[in-house]
Amino acid sequence: MPCGGNWRVSPIRKRWLMLSDRSWQGLWRLVALGILLCYPIMVVKWIPFGGGARYLNVLAAPVCLVLLWQAPREEIRGLLMSAVRWGMPFLPFVLMWTIAQLWHGYDPLDLNPPMRLLWCALLFLGARLAGVSYRHLAIVAAIGAVVYCGVALVEVYGLGRARAWGGTYENRFGQFSIWVASLCFLHVFLEKGKSESRSVNTLLLLAGVLGCISTWLSGSRGALLALLVLIAIAFFRATNRRRGLLLAIVMISAVLAFCLLYAPMYQRLELTFGEAKAYFNEADFSPTSIGIRLELYRIAFLTLLEHPVIGPGYTSLNQLYETHPAFGVARPEMLDIPGFHNDWAQAIGIGGGLLLVSLVGTCLWMGRSALRNVYQLAFLGFAVIFSFSEIFFTNKLGLSLLMASWALYAAAEQNQERSA
After folding, report:
1. pLDDT at 55 over 90
2. Could you give the angle at which helices 396-419 and 73-87 cross, rounded to 10 degrees?
3. Which of 113, 122, 346, 365 is spaced 20 to 30 Å from 244 by Cα?
4. Quick check: 233 and 172 in contact, CB under 8 A?
């Protein structure tokens, strides 16, 4: 080996080093993409890091920080500003939630909404730098739908459960299932299907059907309402009328199949109307699933009348009944519920009218920013329609799904515009 300062790397050695460097960069990019895109694991407890929102802070956050550290210094400022703009629609709800927690002296403080916003802003940056595309997201949604269907089949027909739940919660599992199934349908019918091969579109449609089956097996009635959102989008937002009509027909067929072909689901839907009718006709309501939900809306309305500004800062329904005798005597079945069963009543119970208005403001701001993006419009529609029967915005797992999806698809849109 030469000892002087004139030693130089041979052309062959230099070329090998460049190829090696590119190979490692390609491998790192592939690993980073895989980690950032694995959000469907959140609802399946049987998968490592699943059964919670650890995907955001344990898996995605470190990868995003490394990608940000590797980014060119001259691009950092622009990236950070784009992340701020991305997170602006969520600020009214997140800020008012935090203020209500501090005002009422919650111990411990529930800072899940601001933490979700922080982690998902970081996810948005990582997705921008990793080059996440709409095709990546469609493939991941398809894989998620297939996995959910497999989990549901094992739980219901293998383990004998009445409803599939993924180790977390039946209704949440149903929401995740219809969420990823809808992304497969949207990709094929309304957005990117023209650029895909027929075989890819066929596989995406098959995965969407499997996602619908897992929703079916979860027995979640609220999750089925997401199909109504898709039908509305197909009619009013489709740029290709033929494709929009085809999607609407597929969704209507799916709704009819859910309602008529699967006896447990048909019975649960039939109970919905019977329980709602009984609630309004009985002097003392029956503690059924629908009856309890309607009673919680009544309690929330009375709470808003007594605490119209910042709310009572409730911690449990038992505490709320004890401090408000006008609400009447609580049924034992009511006291077994950890809290209000919907976001709007939950917002009133924690932060009163201010938090309720902030939640509405966030939804309107999200809607305004999603006018050009069919995917984000669907996310907002799903979240709002879920929020009337389950807590979604005020639930860690629900809010994580909404913000993570919003971040990934916003990043895909900006990556597409940049490469155009």
Report:
1. yes
2. 130
3. 365
4. no
Cα 240 from Cα 122, distance rounded (Å) = 35
Per-residue burial over 283-300, b = 16 or more CB atoms within 10 Å of its CB, e = otherwise: eebeebebbbbbbbbebb
Angstrom distance (rounded) from CA 134 to CA 1: 51
Helix axes 73-87, 112-130, angle to 10 degrees: 140
DSSP state of 295: H
Q: Count helices and strands (H / E) in the chain.
A: 19, 0
Q: How far apart are CA 407 and CA 401, in angstroms?
A: 10
Type and span of the H or E element at 142: helix 134-153
pLDDT in tens, 312-341: 999 889 889 988 888 888 888 888 888 899
Burial of 276 from C-beta contacts in 10 A (0-12 / 13-18 / 19+): middle
pLDDT digits (tens, 9 = 90+) for 143-180: 999 999 999 999 999 999 999 999 999 999 999 999 99
**Per the domain annotation, does 12 fall within a domain?**
no
Is this model's pTM higher than 0.85 or not? yes
Query: How many structural domains is the chain composed of?
Result: 1
The reply to whether 198 falls in a domain is yes
For 377-392, what is each residue's pLDDT tens digit? 999 999 999 999 999 9
Identify whether 76 is part of a domain.
Answer: no
Per the structure, the complete domain to which residue 195 belongs is given by 132-262
Distance of CA 56 to the CA centre of its chain: 13
> What is the Cα–Cα distance from 369 to 413, expressed in whole angstroms?
13
pLDDT at 238: 74
Q: CA-CA distance, 251 to 330, in Å (whole number)?
A: 41
**What DSSP assignment string belongs to 370-412?**
TTT-HHHHHHHHHHHHHHTTS--TTSHHHHHHHHHHHHHHHHH
286 falls within a domain: no
